Amino acid sequence: MEAVSRADGPIGVRELARTVDLSVATAHRLLTSLQARGFVEQVGNRGEYRLGWGLLEYAARLIQRTELLPTTIPLAAHLRDVSEETVTVHIRLGDERVCVAEVESHHDLHRAVGVGRRSPLVAGASGRAILAFLPEPEVANLLSEPTGSNSTAIQKIGRERLMEAVRETRAAGYATSSEEWVPGVSSMAAPLLGPTGYAVGSVGIAGPVLRWTPTQMAVHRDELLATAERMSHALWVAGVATTGAQRSSELVGALLPPLRP
After folding, report:
1. CA dihedral angle for residue 209, residue 214, residue 218, residue 224, rounded to 10 degrees
2. Does domain 66-238 have CATH number 3.30.450.40?
3. What is the pTM for the complete model shown?
4. Is the distance from CB of 159 to CB of 143 less than 8 angstroms?
5. Nearest C-alpha neighbor of 156 from the set 117, 175, 183
6. What is 2-57's CATH topology?
7. Span(s) in the chain for CATH 1.10.10.10
8. What are the tens digits of pLDDT across the range 195-247?
9. 67-94 CB burial, b ≥16 within 10 A, e <16
């Protein structure tokens, strides 16, 4: 399913088999099972596969059972109203971050991320607000042995620059970026901290570089930090931000890496 979701478009069984290192027969058998449950569907004359609508049923169940959205959306909406820019909530998912909540700006021209979109941890303010507040061994590993989108981001931005940005983020308590990962977009984000003091996610404000300037960020910095603190506390109370080596599946329906002291 992950291989199907990451494909640029519908993908054939032979290409999928190569991607996940399985025989064509095994890949076809698995796809048949997924198709029967609506997780994938065949399209076009070549019978290629893409994600199916059956996934929405499970997404709806997740939203209904988690305290994440009722906890964060009102706070995010208030921050959007104050800043007039798009506010997103990201949660760490392995070596990446995933957008789990978004309240878009009312401006015609605005940043839109999309709930469910994955991005690297090392790039962008929302990623670095998480990265900078992880245990040092994890930070070092992510920067020295990057995989996937993190590797691409490090090649684009530069390892030394990212290490400097991590230090700046720790000192300031929040992260900023300008056209670092997405052209034309600047952002500012603060970490969502678990009870151990390590980041489990971030809340950020993003907008067009011509409008969401460093001056505007400075105006709304304190409101962002206050919102991050309230959101972190609300997640603790709701039992969403876990402690110690426990893992939370409530956030995104997948296991988060352990928060090691």
Report:
1. 40
2. yes
3. 0.70
4. yes
5. 183
6. Arc Repressor Mutant, subunit A (1.10.10)
7. 2-57
8. 778 898 999 999 999 999 999 999 999 999 999 999 888 777 655 554 332 33
9. ebbebbeebbeebbeebbbbbbbbbbbe
